[in-house]
Design brief:
Number of helices: 20
Distance between the termini: 42 Å
Helix content: 55-70%
Order of helices and strands: HHEEHHHEEHHHHEEHHHHHHHHHHH
Radius of gyration: 23 Å
Structural class: mainly alpha
Strand content: under 5%
Number of strands: 6
Largest sheet: 2 strands, antiparallel
Strand order of the largest sheet: 1-2
Shape: globular
């Protein structure tokens, strides 16, 4: 049943592509695949990237993007919003991609030796493995390329956040079923449980996971969907605003029942920022979070993170969680020390980055945070490339806020991205949705100055400072001031007109 679902998914997306705009197809494929397709299932062919839940939705979209006709229902939205080319044109983003590709090959070239720990022997890497690492990285970045190309415009940011809200509300009913009945939907539908059941029994209740790898991953998505719903409610002026508020409150209440303290804290910390602060302070907050995420490993390595204080706070909130947090900190320290032996390009795959007992070969450390895994496997070059690509747009938007006239809905998107990145410090669940958000913000940066040519209406004409966005074309997009239009924006406009005339 699990592999059948993976096979059927592309067929379903191709059928829906005849009825929906391409932006909506992207959201259905990536968000729907992330939420519904089975984990730990797929096909792993030599050299090629694995075909599984993480890759099949993106590969399907790439094929559709190249094969769909340029006239008709699906192409209309593409003609309005699509950026030219597939590669980013921002220097920092290009640098990140180059470092990823170069770093992956260097990781393979600098890890040719085999490792022995008692009875355990780990083989060295070959040039072949370098190409495999590069293909795996490019596969992971497919949502980034799609987000940058098709979700650069603020109009599409509304669509993206609404899709997260709708998906979160729909998924919440499945989550509530598991809160009451225990996590069993994956067993009922796909025939297996993807993780340890003991980790999903919390405080006399259950932590739901539905079809995800772990309940923490579900809780984080629910937190992001909650912030997206509140962001839409505050940014979009519509007769249906009360529906957005109702959905946001429902999602917040559901999140509180998921027995995931970390995701709930993220939502509670970000929620006042989304609801009460103005755009400058919101962007400043998002930039500070993104900067802290990039700098965290450096601060951790220099013993500047107050681990003792964090342990005390954790014990005050829930004494049962403090030992788990201490165990996590101890593992991070051991893994960072191991990574220090190959700081630039890391140890590569095959668990070469882990800490083993030299006599028994027993694995002594657990890898949780995405940052420590990246530093251990790809080194500082790989870490800065990946986390820079994810976190830098939130910083650059704050730096260029006035020059680019960043709209409220884009600010909300930046906050949702920052909240999603926070969880990469304690956990390693980097979802395609998070990568899609980062790509969308890089696309907005490429547009440069405000997309004033889409509309000439000012914020002063809208009630309560909200902007009236629609699901369709950009005719109702509102922006402030009258900034100059960049040469690149004019190029995008020419590209769109050419696509319309074909």
């Amino acid at each position: 049943m699990a592999k059948l679902a993976l096979l059927v998914w592309p067929v379903l997306i191709i059928i829906l592509a005849q009825r929906l705009s391409f932006q909506k197809i992207i959201l259905v494929s990536l968000i729907g695949g992330f939420l519904l397709l089975p984990t730990q299932t797929g096909w792993d062919f030599p050299l090629l990237p694995a075909f599984n839940k993480d890759s099949i939705p993106g590969f399907t979209l790439l094929v559709l993007a190249m094969l769909l006709p340029r006239a008709g229902g699906a192409s209309d939205a593409r003609a309005q919003f699509e950026l030219p080319g597939w590669l980013p044109r921002t220097g920092l983003a290009i640098l990140g991609l180059v470092l990823m590709i170069f770093g992956n090959q260097m990781t393979a070239l600098t890890n040719g030796e085999s490792l022995s720990f008692g009875p355990t022997t780990i083989p060295g890497l070959r040039i072949y493995d370098g190409f495999s690492l590069i293909l795996g990285t490019l596969t992971m970045l497919v949502p980034f390329f799609l987000g940058r190309k098709f979700f650069a415009h603020p109009e599409t940011h509304v669509l993206l956040l609404k899709a997260m809200m709708i998906a979160g509300v729909g998924y919440s009913f499945l989550a509530l079923f598991e809160v009451r009945m225990s996590p069993q939907l994956n067993v009922m539908v796909y025939g297996f449980f993807p993780h340890s059941f003991a980790q999903h029994v919390r405080s006399g209740g259950f932590r739901p996971l539905v079809f995800m790898e772990h309940g923490l991953q579900l809780a984080l998505f629910s937190a992001a969907a909650t912030l997206a719903a509140f962001g839409v409610w505050r940014s979009v002026d519509s007769k249906r605003s009360w529906i957005y508020l109702l959905a946001a409150c429902w999602l917040l209440g559901t999140l509180g029942l998921m027995n995931s303290l970390g995701a709930l804290i993220i939502a509670v910390v970000f929620l006042p920022v989304v609801l009460f602060l103005g755009r400058p302070l919101q962007l400043l907050f998002a930039a500070m979070i993104c900067s802290a995420i990039i700098l965290y490993p450096m601060l951790r390595g220099a013993d500047l993170v107050p681990t003792d204080r964090l342990l005390s706070m954790s014990a005050a909130i829930d004494p049962d969680r403090a030992p788990s947090l201490r165990y996590r900190f101890d593992n991070e320290a051991a893994l960072l020390e191991r990574a220090g032996d190959k700081p630039l390009f890391g140890w590569g795959g095959w668990d070469r980055n882990r800490v083993f007992d030299p006599e028994t070969g027993r694995d002594l450390a657990e890898t949780d945070g995405a940052w420590v895994v990246l530093i251990g496997t790809r080194g500082w070059i790989g870490y800065l490339a990946v986390f820079g690509l994810l976190a830098a747009p939130g910083i650059l938007l704050a730096v260029n806020r006035r020059r680019y006239d960043v709209s409220p809905i884009t600010v909300a998107l930046a906050l949702v991205l920052a909240a999603s990145l926070v969880d990469l410090i304690p956990n390693g669940f980097l979802s395609p949705v998070t990568i899609l958000l980062a790509g969308a913000l890089w696309g907005r940066l490429e547009l440069g100055v405000s997309v004033q040519d889409a509309s000439q209406v000012s914020d002063a004409q809208t009630p309560r400072g909200k902007q009236n966005y629609a699901w369709g074309g950009p005719s109702e997009l509102l922006s402030t001031g009258a900034p100059k239009v960049s040469a690149y924006t004019r190029q995008v406009t020419r590209h769109q007109r050419t696509r319309k005339s074909e």
